[in-house]
Amino acid sequence: MAEVNYAQEFKRSIKDPENFWMDQASNISWFQKPQRALTKDQNGFYRWFKGGKLNTCYLALDVHIENGRGEDIALIYDSPVTQSIEKYTYLELRDQVSRLAGGMKRLGVEKGDTVIIYMPMIPQAVISMLACARLGAVHSVVFGGFAPHELAIRIDDAKPKLIITATSGIEVDRIIPYKPMVDEAIAKSTHKPDHVIVYNRRMGAVRPDQENDIDYATLMKIADPVRCIEVDATDPLYILYTSGTTGKPKGIIRDNGGHAVAMHYSMKHVYGVNPREVFWAASDVGWVVGHSYIVYAPLVYGCTTVLFEGKPVRTPDASTFWRVISDHEVDVMFTAPTAIRAIKKEDPEGEFIKQFDMSRLRYLFLAGERCDVSTLNWAGEKLNVPVIDHWWQTETGWPIVANMMGFNEHFDVKPGSATQAVCGYDVQILREDGSEAERGEEGYVTVKLPLPPGTLPNLWGDTERFIKGYLNKFDGYYFSGDGGYIDEDGYVFITGRVDDIINVAGHRLSTAEMEEVVAKHPDVAECCVVGIEDDLKGQIPLAIAVLKAGACIESFQLQSEVVGDVRKEIGPVASLKKVLIAERLPKTRSGKILRKVIRAIADGKEFTVPSTIDDPEILNEIEKLFQDQMVGSFEKKVKQSN
Ligand code: COA
Ligand code: AMP
């Protein structure tokens, strides 16, 4: 536990970031200590710990071995879908990582090169990430639920020297062959990687061989282990693509120095964990939660991390999470509210929980999407531990708003709020004109610059988009893309995105990207995709299409084709299931589609008809369409009356 209290520490982090973060930096092992915490680069962007030299893989593995902890468990792989559990000590993990890094080096990978990792939730995914870090290469992990087209976009942007993949993933009871998807993506992309390393899971998935493929196991046999390469604190550790408001994903850059310091700080102060304890983030390495809290933070901090290949339900049932907590004596857990909703739906009384000894569990953290009050309360009641809703983004890499468990005194929970700003984040709510909102008044959620260490310094290859997307809206502030308010007690409430990004089962997706796919259908004249409320996934996308004159496609046919197109172009994770045909779309007189109003109608929420609307009658048509097709709140009403 920290000796100081939150209020003191928070104040110091904002008033004196230089010294505050230099103090935190002394908690990690540098090859060369930085002389300063905060500087600006040639673009005028803030950078952390410039001049410091380190290696993130060294911090995650080697340093613990040097401190005599080589035999401690670093990673537990628990896979209900293959019914296997494997444990890796720090020594074992370091040996595998250094060998793979040696193999990659043989294949020509050097410091600064990029490597794409497209893998299921297996230890080799973590080993690949750490091997890149060891070499100073920049990894970009692409979530397995994305289709080849999405992978191709990332290949062309990141221009990887290598791709590392596996033969297959497993979705509940289905084998997903990964290798053919990688081949398809490479065929589509302009940039071609030199090699594809393929980890063979031996599950019978089709594995087409290409000339430049390298077998993972063979490479490991012939490779020599390598030591950690020294990198600058400001050198990139990874790129993680996330949905933006256009069809093209944004490459969030994470640096080495600021990231390592922030990971260490957050484990102690936000999550209230101690080294050697077991930390489990039930997410996927393809998302930021996986990067930060499956791989880097727990290992840098010297915890045991759990890598879980399964789902909260159906692998095999809603008891899985509790079994993992009990089997591996998990101290602190992190997941998305949607996972708890899925469990609650299957086991509303929490009967499964009673079958396991979960006495070690201290806290459950939830993030990735808005946490509804009933989910928060259910989890708190059934697990009998504090359930902490906390808010953050791929861009920041670690929590912005939370109830920081590392301090002696914690805040009372206010359901619906992620609690207070985390040390280092000067969170402010601004109005459209840039003035500060009153307490309780909803506005744009921003963070006054500088952002703390670990947050994005720029976008990969697109400085202009970085400035336009985050810095230009309010001079001197980072704009999060979320709306919200701060109440009289300083509690931050996030009310939702103010742009076209949606959160489907904790997965961040762009409706603009889906619209691009729907619009390509030959019978569609125009369309829109909005995120509507869903009891399980939080939000799901809904497409509304207006047909071209003369098109005579049936509604179910259009739906089936468009759903197929979105699965093929973006991936199954998009979860687009419903496509409606409308006569017209509601628009402003200047032609802007009123997506917010459409969403409000579907969710049964109050809204103000904009004065700029072209034809208010269309809103009635849309309402009737939703009613007829039982969309959103209309479906809910029918279910309730049943
Ligand atoms: N590889 C291939 N396909 C994948 C995939 C992967 N890695 N991940 C998901 N998919 C597929 C699923 O099989 C599903 O396909 P289907 O439409 O053919 O059934 C589709 O993408 C949607 O997946 P998902 O959103 O996971 O829905 P689900 O119905 O399978 O499961 C939940 C619902 C709530 C159980 C699940 O979404 C979940 O566990 N969510 C927690 C999310 C999370 O951890 N988010 C990270 C942020 S903390
Ligand atoms: P991602 O970048 O995938 O982590 O998604 C970030 C977005 O998810 C944020 O901008 C929010 O819109 C949403 N989000 C994440 N955590 C929360 C939370 N605790 N409460 C409300 N929204 C959240």
Would you identify the regions where 5 or more consecutive residues have pLDDT less than 50?
Answer: none
CATH superfamily of the largest domain: ANL, N-terminal domain
Major sheet strand order: 5-4-17-16-18-19-20
| Total count of domains | 2
How many strands appear in the DSSP assignment? 31
Distance between the termini: 51 Å
Dominant shape: globular
Largest sheet: 7 strands, mixed
Bound molecule kinds, no repeats: coenzyme A, adenosine monophosphate
**CATH fold group of the largest domain:** Rossmann fold
Protein architecture, described:
- One of its GO terms (molecular function) is propionate-CoA ligase activity.
- InterPro entries: ACAS_N, AMP-bd_C, AMP-bd_C_sf, AMP-binding_CS, AMP-dep_synth/lig_dom, ANL_N_sf.
- Pfam families: ACAS_N (PF16177), AMP-binding (PF00501), AMP-binding_C (PF13193).
- This is Propionyl-CoA synthetase.
- Belongs to the ATP-dependent AMP-binding enzyme family.
- α6 packs across α7.
- β29 and β30 form a beta hairpin.
- This protein has 19 helices and 31 strands.
- The strands form 10 sheets. It has a 7-stranded mixed beta sheet with strand order 5-4-17-16-18-19-20, with helices on both faces.
- 32% of the residues lie in helices and 23% in strands.
- It has 2 domains: 364 residues, Rossmann fold; 141 residues, GMP Synthetase, Chain A, domain 3 (2-Layer Sandwich).
- The mean pLDDT is 96.
- By secondary structure, it is an alpha/beta fold.
- It is globular.
- The structure holds coenzyme A and adenosine monophosphate.
- The site of adenosine monophosphate has 20 residues, from β25 and β26.
